[in-house]
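Dear colleagues,

For the upcoming journal club I promised to circulate an example of a predicted protein-ligand complex. I picked one with glutamic acid because it came up in last month's discussion. The inputs are reproduced below in full, followed by the predicted structure.
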Amino acid sequence: MATPSGQNAGMSGRFAPSPTGELHLGNLRTALVAWLAARSAGRGFLVRMEDLDRVTSSPEHERRQLDDLAALGLDWDGEVLRQSDRFELYRREIERLRIDGRVYECFCTRREIRAEIDAAAHAPHVHLPDGAYPGTCRDLTADERAEHIASGRRPAMRLRAGGEVLEFDDLVHGHMDGVVDDVVLARADGVPAYNLAVVVDDAAQGVTQVCRGDDLLTSTPRQILLQRLLGLATPQYLHVPLVLGADGQRLAKRHGAVTLADLRAQGSSAAEVVSVLARSLGLANPGEIVTADVLVERFEPECLPRTPAHLADLYPTTL
Ligand code: GLU
């Protein structure tokens, strides 16, 4: 199938971090799973930098993230793709959706959306994902739009999703479904949005398996709808349960020594970190030191844990 960038579709898995900070153990664990899922099936493995947000992304973070992947023995094929190089392509795809009547302008601020969601909290409504856009600007008249523009507001572009319910099978979580909300396609400052960019890039790069943290499970129906509207194939999905800190929240810097650099500073080698991650995935025995290469033979997606991991079980002493 022809892809938006004209590249050849291959058979690849990928890891697509945002270079907005250092990778923590949860990110590294997901990267390990993504790499193992690809390599154990003889697939290519791609790395894509999701640096859409030019304010929070930095080349320094990108370099450190790539160094960490390499240190863990996770190699990738070809050049690292950067979303910041591809804004024109995303805008063309949004234009295709607009021509199909699937895009509308949204002038709401975050605060207005929040207020509207709170006000509607007790009203009966179709079940939408948390924080779903309530549709305020979906059917504005030309006069109302002109008024917003005259008042100096610039619109974001939203998908007219039509409240569709999308189903998919996840290799870890099984059969899933979700209502698609009117997701943002481009922000008010013109920056293309994550869900649109990810769908365009996965197709352009020939990604046939998307492996990522399961905090993105709720985004998957949105992405599948976008794939259908843009005539793109739907990849296989594998959402890896997150690593949680002692407070039960997803891992973050505040939980202490959670990056490869932190752990190295405490005397752990990269091989030890791979082994700890492997153990948390049921791929190595306590005390066993393994390399990523060795794990390729052992990896079976069906055997992955279906519940979150806890930092305290991975590294009791870092807490
Ligand atoms: N860039 C996203 C993140 O770092 C991941 C997106 C994806 O894998 O689809 O959370």
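Two points we might discuss: The radius of gyration is 21 Å. Residues 112 and 136 are 9 Å apart (CA to CA).

See you all on Thursday,
B. R.
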